[in-house]
Design brief:
The chain is an alpha+beta fold and 295 residues long. The chain has 14 helices and seven strands. The chain folds into two domains: 6-225, no CATH class; 232-291, no CATH class. Helix 5 (87-94) packs antiparallel against helix 6, helix 5 (87-94) runs antiparallel to helix 10 (212-225) and helix 11 (232-248) crosses helix 13 (270-279).
Length: 295
Amino acid sequence: MPPRNLTDELTTVAGLASAVVEHAQSYGIDIKPICKALDIDPEVFQSLARISLDRLCRLLEACALLADDEAFGITSIKGYEAGSTGPFGYGLMAAPTGLDFVRFLDDHIQYVTHTSYSKLTIDERGAHLAWTFAPVIVKRDQYVDMSVGLVMQRARDLSGSDGIEIDLERPAPRNLQPFRQFLARRLNFGARVNCVHFPRAFLNAQNPTGDRRLFELMDLQCRSLRPPSPAKAADFLEQVRRYLLLQVSDEDFPLRRSHPISACRSGHSSGALLHTARASTSFATRSARKSASIF
């Protein structure tokens, strides 16, 4: 059983992964041993409980590796039952217009998953929702594929996905077909942050099954259930600082041999480390990706 650590402070709604167990079984994968190693109860995926974002990401990455399918996360949404995230899912389904849909998504992204940064920009072209995760969440490509795919399911129900463009941090997959099928036709990979671009036509669209009263109730419910969150910028920086401090204590971790960290260990002030974190968050992410294992 892995010990609880910094990454377990970042959580997501377990119901996001409600289809993962059956999807893994379709590949002949029994996820119970993986869940046991990650200290996850598979039954939790049928609830609205909050679970460690990092551990769920590692579970999905392990499944993708065992299935030898980099589209494991995105194709898992085929078996997803709408509303499994509770008020978040029902709120998206009940949004009266495309603009309501996008604003609800922006308002409650912190309810459904813990991001380190998110920003909604609306201009004459449409709406642009950008987000990313803290560097401590190293293995997250499958999770992002799955979660964005679930949002796009609800977007298609409202108005279709024509004109929507998506930027993803993940590298380009070998086979684009399932990504274009479940996300959007216009995809960009290797982006600095994830971003969904909703065209003006989507924002103006009327939801044929929209329900203003239910939408407002789900909005209130999400607000009441949202986990407490400190100021985003300070939270992100603190996550990076604490991550580096944790890793330099590990004798086998490659970061300890890099000059800025070694200098801090040799007696430089913690301020030097904090400066390094500000200047080198991308360095931390690259180094962590090289050294972190699935478990």
